[in-house]
Fold this sequence. Notes:
Rossmann fold; Helicase, Ruva Protein, domain 3
Amino acid sequence: MAGRPLAPNPAGAHFLRDRRLIAQLANAGGARTGQLVFDLGAGSGAITAALAATGARVIAVERDPKLAARLRRRFDQEPQVRVVEADLRTIPLPGRDFLVVASPPFSLTTAVFRRLLGDPDVPLAGAELILQWEAARWLTRPRPRDAETAWWTCRYQIRLARAVSRASFTPPPRVGAAWVSVRPRSLRASPRGQRRLRAILAAAYRRSGTRADLAIPGYRRLLLRAGIDPAAPVAAVTADQWHRLAVLLGGETTGLS
């Protein structure tokens, strides 16, 4: 009813209902026959159904028991769909490449990114996600806001595809939304390079606010090669520059100076 206050929704669950957008998400994600795809926070199964139509093997993750039961009934005759009643923050992830196409609860955005991008051993091949607008903005800024975001964005390109109307959901959220695409960068550092980069990021952001945030002993030469001024504030360094440093760290075999 027009003018009626929105019902409280503390979990941040807003179910995507825009069929055209859902089809675009499934196509953009690269889902195809046999591809393993996760729908995190599957809700009523709208995205799951679109993914299943591509022939992909779909893991529909839903924490709410009632919604999970409905999903099992809906996809009972579709063997390529598996419904898992679990928390997306703790569900085990596969050891081989997989995709994610999902509209997770807005309140779990950080948890989703920690789960998918935090561990370098997680073989995420790409993701198409519907997120709260402000979260999408800070995740896609050229300059990461903290060490954790820098760790994600130096290894994955996170792109804001477009804004998403509140009318695309039921119930409509109080805030704007956006479609965000996540892709592995073409050149990722070796495990050794990633460990070294993570240590650099932790040190640099811990020193944030000093006159030489990046003047970390032993790394001056590689910082310069990556196009990073060691005397610059850490807030000035872009995700692309962190990525170049990751690549250099992965290929570095001699002592640092």
